[in-house]
Amino acid sequence: MKVFGIVIGVILVLVLVLGGWIWSGRGQLIDRSQGVDEKWSQVQNVYQRRFDLIPNLVASVDNFMQQQRTTLTEVISLRQRVLDLKGSAQDALQAQNPALLDSLSGQLSRQLNSYINVVVEQYPEIKGDQLYADLQTQLEGTENRITQERRAFNETVREYNTFRQKSLKAIVAGTIFGFPYEKQYFAAQAEAQTAPNVKELFEKK
Fold this sequence. Notes:
single chain; mainly alpha; 6 helices; 81% helix; disordered C terminus
């Protein structure tokens, strides 16, 4: 009977130790998962800044063209495409889908480049408009912020994925508590990584 009690005691101690070990893994996974979420929120902030600036850029062009009392069909069409893509990209932000966001962001950049190309060719004097120049500067700064935040996000995802897949306690705790085995990186195609080069467009003769 005494031996039986010792065995039960040993089992209970092992269960408690194992439970504490697994719970510790859960805590570490929570910390890393929260870190990924925090970095994603920073990515959302800088992309949202970009999406908010684009309608201002479009509005400044519209205002300038109205002052010129001219209607440019191609500019109006391109403007609508830019604004439509902005809405889709914002949905991707809310869904926390880096791959979709990269794809839409690349499309948005290409459409914005086309839009500005047409405007600058048709209205070269717009390059001297102060509001337009200010927005150009803000867009360039936003693209730099996006690059930095994407890099920080990927580093945090790498830390989470490495811990989740290599640490025995993370493998056990992650399986028990349902933590994802892998979080998604930003891994854009080459054209999606190219920011709209507004400065070059403004410098065209």
